[in-house]
Write a structure and sequence with these properties.
mainly beta, 5-stranded antiparallel β-sheet, disordered N terminus, globular, 1 helix, 6-stranded antiparallel β-sheet
Length: 183
């Protein structure tokens, strides 16, 4: 007895058995690359949640770290707080590293103005990773923080909270090039 194999019978076999095995493992999670569309504030606060006093500017006397724009928590020498934050999705089995640059321009004489940088990740209590004071320096300095990996997809929120107290001098915290890189 002869057996005839047709393309239709092969297709039916593949459909009922779940497909052909190529011996290749399933694709790895997409754990590479920059995942925030506006890390350098070149498009203003697009992709960010910003308080009403966050100023995004490019100024020849205070140039950006790269590009032409940066976020500035404007130094007004009044008691107030400013908040800037962004939330991204971290795929399962991926680590998110957030790197950012900060400089401080100040006339303050006491240690009452600060910039707290926080990282909140699904399933982990929010945590302040850096508390930068008025004396951080007028040169750009880089900082980084990481989420670690987890077997499930998570969201990560990075926040910059500046607080200024009146009467001790004005402090402006400038933030630029906030990269969100998966690995």
């Amino acid at each position: 007895m002869k057996t005839f194999v047709t393309a239709a019978s092969v297709a039916a076999l593949l459909l009922t058995t779940g497909g052909a095995s190529s011996g290749q493992p399933a694709a790895d999670a997409p754990c590479t690359g920059q995942i925030h569309a506006n890390p350098g504030f070149e498009r203003g606060t697009t992709g960010w949640t910003a308080g009403p006093r966050i100023v995004v500017l490019g100024d020849a006397t205070r140039p950006a770290h790269t590009g032409r724009a940066y976020a500035s928590f404007a130094g007004l020498d009044v008691t107030h707080s400013d908040l800037l934050r962004a939330t991204v999705t971290v795929p399962a089995d991926c680590d998110l590293t957030v790197r950012f640059w900060v400089r401080t321009i100040t006339t303050e004489t006491s240690r009452s103005d600060y910039l707290n940088v926080g990282l909140a990740v699904t399933g982990i209590p929010p945590k302040t990773r850096f508390s930068l004071a008025f004396d951080g320096g007028s040169q750009w300095r880089q900082y980084s923080m990481s989420t670690g990996t987890a077997p499930t997809e998570r969201t990560a929120t990075v926040s910059f909270l500046a607080s200024e107290t009146a009467g001790n001098g004005a402090t402006a915290f400038d933030v630029d090039d906030v990269t969100f890189t998966l690995s």
